[in-house]
Amino acid sequence: MREDTAQEQGLDLEPPVRMEEEKEVMEVEERVVEVEHPLPCLSESDTQGIIKGRALFGYVGIEAVLDQMRRKTMKAGFEFNIMVVGQSGLGKSTLVNTLFKSKVSRKSCTPNYEEQISKTVHLQSVSHIIEEKGVKMKLTVIDTPGFGDQINNENCWEPIVQYVNEQYEKYLKEELNVNRKKRIPDSRVHGCVYFLPATGHWLRPIDVEFMRRLGKIVSIVPVIAKADTLTLEERLEFKQRIRQDLQANGIRVYPQKEYDEDAEDRILNDKIRENIPFAVVGTDKEHQVNGNKVLGRKTKWGIIEVENVAHCEFAHLRDLLIRSHLQDLKDVTHNIHYETYRVKRLNESNANGLALSPLTLENGTLEKSDAESHL
Q: What is any one GO biological process for this UniProt entry (predicted)?
């Protein structure tokens, strides 16, 4: 009877707990309003919070990580392996010596060296430890004597392809060891400088075939050797023809557009791609020019300054290989070319029932017959 009377009078008989809940909600809203600039934090919907600048309570020391990495790198040093390919007489050894300003080529450091035309392409390498301002670099220069020097140059690129794949295979075997080394020796080719003769015409068939095949497994940087034999107009026209041939034959040269990580890299690499192939001049002799010593080639008409961009593009090549893209060359080799080879090898082994897993490894290494069957 009392409930019916209350409903007839329109009274609300909800429990007093609801008023207490409303009071708590009001207090929470007041507290939220008081916090004007909350610190960014992680939530279920936002998995990446960025805390920087004034949001930090004080100096943490995160930037010191760069100093730690620098100290470790300076102690351990690093490797850089460069291959030079081209016919004899194009100045490969001289250019390598000019790049590193020391006698690092095989010809320069071999006593009683005699120039002989090899009957076949036989790759030879020489290694040096170069130190500059406390930074040590193990430089390995791989030379290819005999390439393109024969009357019949059919399949002359096969030894080079085999050598590059052998270095990938060595690295892969070290990675698959049960007890791996703390630091795997890196003998992989990080960059290949291909020398084009300054003919002023189009690319030769051997040039097209070599770069088309090698561009899939290693980073290739084409250069026009002894560019001082061409006039500026001839050089410009020759570079344009080479770029047309590269595009028409689908030849991939470094740096590739698909490997640009961001807009900044794209802008820098676009400028480099506009200058490829680099018209270079190499020398290891110094001359006096306006009271200063410069690397140059002395001619009857004057001195061609190697490091002067108005005379040749050697400085652009040096910046690409050493000063701006050396680490990127190593990253592309490891993340792109080596990774492609690794996936291919593992797929082939799995298809043949020889999965490269710890169960099929003997004494922590691949069997020799299995490793050599795919080279």
A: cell division
